[in-house]
Amino acid sequence: MHPTDTDVLILIDIQNDFCPGGALAVPDGDAVVPVANALVRRFRHVVLTQDWHAPEHASFASRHGLAPFSEVRLDYGQQTLWPDHCVQGTAGADFHPGLEATEAELVIRKGFRPAIDSYSAFFENDRRTATGLAGYLRERGFTRCVFAGLATDYCVAFSAEDAVRCGFQAVVVEDGCRAIDLNGSLAAAMARLRAAGVGVVQSGEIG
Ligand code: VGL
Ligand code: ZN
Fold first, then answer.
1. Is 166 among the residues known to form the active site?
2. Helices 185-196 and 157-165: crossing angle, nearest 10°?
3. What digits encode the pLDDT tens for the residues 173-196?
4. Domains within the chain, CATH numbers bracketed
5. What is the pLDDT of residue 179?
């Protein structure tokens, strides 16, 4: 595929806390950085997302006195509980220092409401509260969203599915993502992506 003016590269949550040594380290998470950098050079338009949680966020296991990676039922549905991560203003919430994306045109922060998590770049986990990204992309005239980043099975997959729901074409660059893979979540996410009509490509196919 050849990126055009109506394509936007959306890099999901390439932040210190999702990389080795971080609070919610995704296995091999920093391997996405060189792939993301190469993609940035091929696209005319780049948007970044930044997981950006209030302290004591409802998705933090510490808030519930429960173990990380357990599940609770919140007002809006089932929520996996995570170690405290990407707290607003902390070094863990910063973008990975190796990410070369200064030309990004928008940084969309998500998960800032204390009572609700947001995996998707488009909607929070109630699946209704909009982040504003769809409106932004429509006004800019983008028709296709190409995703890479962290984590494949959570924020990347939810974002790509929602992109389709919002009327965009969506493509995931598989080797530009790494997964958390809790209880088969990666296989489940890849099946949902294919069912939703999301394209799955390798970075070498983009030129
Ligand atoms: C993510 C879990 C919690 C992600 C963010 O970026 O995939 N996963 N917060
Ligand atoms: Zn988070």
1. no
2. 20
3. 999 999 999 999 999 999 999 999
4. 7-52+88-205 (3.40.50.850)
5. 98
